[in-house]
Amino acid sequence: MTFSIVARDPETDAVGIAVQSKFVSVGSVVPFAAADAGAIATQSFANVAYGPDGLDLLREGHSASEVVEKLTDADDEAASRQVGVVGQDGSIAAFTGEECFDVADDIQGEHYTVQGNILENEETLPAMAETFETTEGGLPEKLIAALHAGNDAGGDSRGEQGAALYIVKPEGGYDGGNDRWVDVRVDDHERPIDELERVFKLYDVTLLAREEPEETRELDGETARAVTATLAELGFYDGEATETFSDDEREALEEFRGLNNFENHSLAVVEDALARGWDDAEGTGEEQMVDAIWHGLSRLDRK
């Protein structure tokens, strides 16, 4: 009841998995990754030992195809399993057991593999593959876009419930202390991929660093009025919203920035992001503020 994509970005050494399933807390079962090894998705009567055992095999120097062969040869129930593997060495492989429920298959391309079972149709996986290959942006955006494409093309025949995005890269974790660069899960939701994307944007703005912009814009005009009015609605500003964004308005924005743990970005960068991203933002209130900041930051490369 699951479709997933495992992929690598050779430019950043990031490798990870995105998955959706009619299964609660799918992120606790399917994705496994380590920056010194690669990434593995195990599904369809998942054998969760495939994760740590497969990563150990990758560390030992085995290719993805060798890992798949060793894992499945040692498993008496391999015929009901499905697994996708991408190694940090660039190797890629997948396995779909002959007893996996239809529609079940896997597709490999440069830097990725997609796999699914109990799918609505045979269009789901090709849609994921094509979208991953053609989407602009970093690995997180490409993986989320692939999930959306698979779901829109048919997806899990039993519906939606859980989704996860797990990406690792060397020293990518909080304050560089581990490799857990992106770790976002939606355990139970009627639209889990939409919710995964919303939470990822908040995660991105809060925890992921960007290159500093060469220049920043200040808020003015109708955008300044709209941002100030939103800050007032959220309780950060008690004056009248105007088309001027000056000291009092910036003090309110600074309070918003601090309360939401956006210290990864200076006040000037947050204001710049709002000025650039407000017209593209969706939602209302705090959700609109976060979405605008995310859109405004998206022009800057992640560190």
From TrEMBL:
InterPro entries: DUF1028, Ntn_hydrolases_N, PG-bd_2. It comes from the Archaea. Coiled coil: none annotated. Gene3D superfamilies: Glutamine Phosphoribosylpyrophosphate, subunit 1, domain 1 (3.60.20.10). Residues 208-265 form the Putative peptidoglycan binding domain. This is Putative peptidoglycan binding domain-containing protein. It comes from Halogranum salarium B-1.
